[in-house]
Write a structure and sequence with these properties.
The protein is an alpha/beta fold. It contains 8 helices and 8 strands; from the N terminus they run βαβαβαβαββαβαβαα. Bound molecules: D-xylitol-5-phosphate (DX5) and zinc ion.
Length: about 230
Amino acid sequence: MAAVLAPSILSADFARLGADVKETEAGGAALIHVDVMDGHFVPNITIGSGVTKALRKVTDLPLDCHLMISEPDRHVDDFIAAGADMISVHVEAATHLHRTVHRIRDGGVKAGVVLNPSTPLSALDEILGDVDFVLLMSVNPGFGGQKLIPSVLQKARALRQRLDLEAPDVRLEIDGGVTVDNVTEVAACGIDMIVTGSAVFGSGDIRGTTERMVRQLAELAERERTC
Ligand code: DX5
Ligand code: ZN
């Protein structure tokens, strides 16, 4: 099964966000990754549930809301009401992670937990059985256009092995520094969902770059199927 592409709107043109999202949709994107930042958990401030609600009106693609915020419990209900299909919260930010994950799921939304690059996989020990997906940060959260941290690829391979053994229904997502030059190597680590922002929205050809990365993922899956 080919990994799917989740363009991150962080690097989109916020003055034409709906049009940019439609371009990625036309290019074969499977999800829209919505980067929510509060300027407290991460240095940057981006968007809130209001923009998610607006995006809900322009695309039928699943909205994958990545909450890079402190005290996510205070905002989860707003993103559920805004039409999020997936909500992920940082293990580093959620004091009552089990309660937060179940609050997301009780809202009929897929629940994910996010690990920063330096957070070990052991942070998943008591929550892996409660989530729908795990998001591994391959950059330090807060900004688009950063370089992928190579050590996270080994972490991703280790998590893939653990999921295959313990939690085969839990999907694996990676986020940060994925480009046309490394997307195949990243996907080959056993990733299910790949977030990419500046590579797509900064390319000058949103639809064409999305199509190219989706094609790269399909070609990898075909090679893996036939080998
Ligand atoms: C960073 C965000 C990522 C980022 C990815 O904090 O979580 O989703 O936007 O952007 P690129 O692909 O440019 O690294
Ligand atoms: Zn993100």
